[in-house]
Each structure stands twice: as C-alpha cells, then as structure tokens.
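# nightly structure sweep
# worker-07 picked up a monomer target from the shared queue
# config: single-sequence mode, recycle default, output format = structure tokens
# input follows
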Amino acid sequence: MGRLSGKRTIVTGAGSGIGRASAQIFAAEGAAVLAVDRSEAAVAETVAAITAAGGRAVALAADAGSEADVAAYVARAVAEFGGLDVIYANAGISGGLVPLFEQSVEHWQEILRVNLIGPFLAIKHAAPHMIAQGHGSIICTASVAGLRANAGGNPYSASKAGVISLVQTSANYPLYGTGVRINAICPGLIESGMTQPIFDRARAHGSADRIGQLNPLQRHGEPREIAAMALFLASDEASYVNGQAIAVDGGLSSTHPFTRPRH
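# output follows
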C-alpha cells in the first residue's frame, strides 16, 4: 500500500475497463485521482467506488480529443489537488472492424482524434506543470496493434502506432532533461467495454475457451493486469523507465506467426 502516496493524478477513460481499474488502484495506493470519461454516469460510478473504499477521487465528464476539454481537466486537477504528478492518457475507441475499402475519411479522423490527438493534448497541457516542478510521469495507452498487424482495424492500429511514436519522440523533445518520464503500455486482448463484442460473440458461439489462444499464456487479460503496469509506471519504482512501449499481452508480440503446438 502507499506506492502513490501523495501523488496527484489524472486517469482518462476512467468510466470502465482499464481506466476504471487504473483509477481504483491509483487511489488504493494513496493517490488523489481526477477520473475523466466522456460518460458522466460511468465515471461517477468509478468515483463512488473509490470513495466508498476510502480513496480520494473527483469525477469529470470530458472529451479526451477536445483541446478545450483537456485544458479544462488538467486545470481542474491542478486546482483541486494543488499540482499534478501523473497523467494516464488511456481513453480510446476501437472503431470496429470496417473493411478498408469501406472506411471513410471521417471514420479515420474520429479514431485519430480520440486515440492519438487525445494523448498529444494530454502531454501538451499536463507536461508544463510537471516540467515546472522537475518531475512527473506521463503514461499513454497504445496497443499491440500498434506494434504489428492483425490485432485491430487499420485506423485503430495506425492510431496506436502513432501513440508509440508520440511517446518516443516526446521523451526526447520536449521532455529531454526535464525529469518528466513518458511511457506507453501496449495491451493485448483485454476484456473491457471496447472489446466486449468480441467476448460476447465468442460466448454466444460456445468458443469462449479459445479467446486469447494465440499467446503463450493462452488466455485473455484483465483490466487489473494493465492497471498494475500503469501503477508501476506512475510510481517512483519506475524512475529509470522512460520512452518505452511496454507490451502487456501474455507474450503475443514475442513471436512471428506460427502453428500452435498440439498436445
């Protein structure tokens, strides 16, 4: 307990899944949390659970891809908590699996707006507060889909590859020498609101036991397992981890395509 004691934090996409699990574990480890989500009702539920458990959290409804909203949620955290030590830019959308030749420019623009411009805006507005104090941790949710093909649709995968590049380039400029760290988490298949249709279809067809079979652990992941990595990166334990894209995927991204062993 207390790994984030005294830390002032923001978690976006905190209304469900990875974001909710991260907000809860941050608070349980002593952080004050501004929980942000576009669903006011969902983020209120997250905060209610945190406060019921004795944690400190504030709910705020905002669009992670709107600069006005991002500037407002950063300002709210600074005003509410007296500063900012950690931001986890986790909010994202999948966009579904629309065939490439049926995708519209508007479809791409919306996915990039939330998934890539959202983290850019989080960095733009949060980092100056951290630079001024000489320390801070910025965490972004990327995806194994940003590392290799066949883990998501075209615009989703491109947006997550962009997040990885954004993290790497930002670590070098403008965060070089500032004491502010930035890293990305690349989840594999996690059961969450975004992926629920995949799990629902598999269960309806009686194939739930095959979900996640392509990774060496042969199972899907849980939001708490990504939240645990976010907790590490937010904490001082990760003081020498910077500019990295860390896969938390059961080993999926460790291999080239192969035929699964039969026992």
